[in-house]
Design a protein that fits this description.
about 350 residues; 16 strands
C-alpha cells in the first residue's frame, strides 16, 4: 500500500524525477521529466544523464558536484540542461544518493524548470539599473553642493528624486517621493509619478499648487491600497529663502546656524483623494547651512540624536544606514550644502 502511494506521488509530482542505478544508468523517469525535457522513457532508459548536459558548465563543475554527493550524500543547485530539441533551460536540481548496506544503490534526481524565474529576475535587475540611470547626477557649483543617496530594497525602487538649477533666477527646485510598496508595479507607478512631477515643474505654479495638480493627475495610476509620500522644495539664493511643501514626507533635517533639527511639516499623501489642499512653508537659510530630504525608509532608522554640525559626518551616517544591514526598505536622500 505504501509503495503504491509513493508511486502515485512520484507520478503526479510537478517536479521532474529521474532515478538511476549505482552506475548512473537511467532506470526511471516520471511524466514531468518527459514533458519538460521532451525525451520519452525509451529514449533515455539505460543511458547516462549526461545526455541532458547543455555544455554551459565545464567538467570541473560536474567533478565538484559528484564529490559533494559522495561526501554528503546529496547536492543541490542551479544547472543549465538542454531539451531534446537542443534548446537550453535553467533548472533547480537536487540529487540524493540512496544507500543499502553502506553502498550506493540508486541516485534520485528531482528538478524544476526555473528559466522563467531567471528571466523575470533579469528583467527586474534591468529595470533597477534603468531607474538608477534616470536619477540626476550630484551637483556642485558656487552656490550649492548636492550629494544623493539611492538604495533600493529589492533591485527596483518606489523612491525617486529630481532637481534642476535655474542659474538665471538663482533658484534650485526639487522633489523627493516614496511610492508605498515594492516590486515592478511600484516601480511603474514611480515612473508615472516622475513624469507628472517633471510636467509640474515647468508650470508657473507655487509648490502647493503643483502638488494639488500632481495629486489629481496620478489618481488613476494608484489603486485603493497604494499611495505616495513626497516633499517639494525650492531654494531661492537671491533672497536666501527655502520654500517647501509636504505631501506625506512630513519631516526633513535642517542644520542652520550650526544647529541641527528635524523640521516637522504637515501634508496629506498623494493618490488617495482628489482636490487635496497642501500648505507651503518657508524658512531662511545662509552660507554653511545644510539640509537633508530623506525618504521614510531612511528616516525611520535614523538615530534620535541631533544631526552633526558637519555635513560630511551626516552624509556618512546616512550612507551607512542606507547601505547597511539595518535597512530593509528603499532608502533615498537629497543632501544639500549651501556655500
Amino acid at each position: 500500500m505504501e509503495s503504491l502511494i509513493a508511486e502515485k506521488v512520484i507520478e503526479s509530482s510537478t517536479e521532474g524525477i529521474m532515478i538511476t542505478d549505482a552506475a548512473r544508468r537511467i532506470i526511471y523517469v516520471n511524466p514531468t521529466f518527459i514533458s519538460t525535457t521532451g525525451y520519452s522513457y525509451d529514449e533515455v532508459a539505460g543511458k547516462n544523464p549526461r545526455i541532458l548536459q547543455s555544455g554551459l558548465q565545464d567538467q570541473s563543475f560536474y567533478r565538484s558536484m559528484w564529490e559533494t554527493i559522495h561526501q554528503n550524500g546529496s547536492w543541490q543547485g542551479e544547472i543549465w540542461n538542454k531539451h531534446k530539441d537542443g534548446s537550453v533551460y535553467l533548472e533547480w536540481l537536487t540529487i540524493h544518493a540512496i544507500y543499502e548496506n553502506g553502498k550506493v544503490k540508486n541516485y534520485v534526481a528531482n528538478f524544476r524548470d526555473i528559466t522563467d524565474r531567471e528571466k523575470i529576475k533579469k528583467d527586474v535587475e534591468l529595470t533597477g539599473e534603468l531607474q538608477r540611470k534616470i536619477l540626476p547626477a550630484d551637483l556642485e557649483n558656487d552656490l550649492i553642493t548636492i550629494q544623493t543617496i539611492y538604495q533600493p530594497a529589492r533591485h527596483v525602487s518606489g523612491d525617486h528624486f529630481g532637481y534642476v538649477m535655474n542659474t538665471e533666477k538663482q533658484k534650485l527646485c526639487g522633489y523627493l517621493y516614496d511610492v508605498m510598496g515594492h516590486g515592478l508595479a511600484t516601480a511603474f507607478q514611480s515612473s508615472c509619478l516622475r513624469v507628472i512631477f517633471e510636467q509640474a515643474n515647468i508650470r508657473e505654479l507655487s509648490l502647493s499648487e503643483k502638488l494639488f495638480w500632481i495629486n489629481n493627475e496620478i489618481l488613476h495610476f494608484f489603486t485603493e491600497d497604494t499611495f505616495a509620500a513626497a516633499i517639494s522644495f525650492e531654494f531661492d539664493f537671491k533672497h536666501k529663502i527655502l520654500t517647501y511643501c509636504s505631501s506625506g514626507i512630513n519631516k526633513f533635517i535642517a542644520n542652520t546656524q550650526r544647529k541641527g533639527q528635524v523640521i516637522n511639516v504637515k501634508g496629506s499623501f498623494l493618490g488617495l483623494v482628489p482636490n487635496q489642499v497642501y500648505t507651503t512653508c518657508q524658512i531662511p537659510f545662509d552660507s554653511n547651512d545644510h539640509f537633508y530630504f530623506v525618504s521614510d525608509g531612511l528616516m525611520d532608522i535614523l538615530p534620535s540624536t541631533h544631526p552633526s554640525p558637519d555635513f560630511k559626518e551626516n552624509l556618512a551616517l546616512l550612507k551607512d544606514l542606507a547601505y547597511g544591514q539595518k535597512n530593509k526598505d528603499d532608502a533615498s536622500a537629497v543632501c544639500i550644502y549651501i556655500h
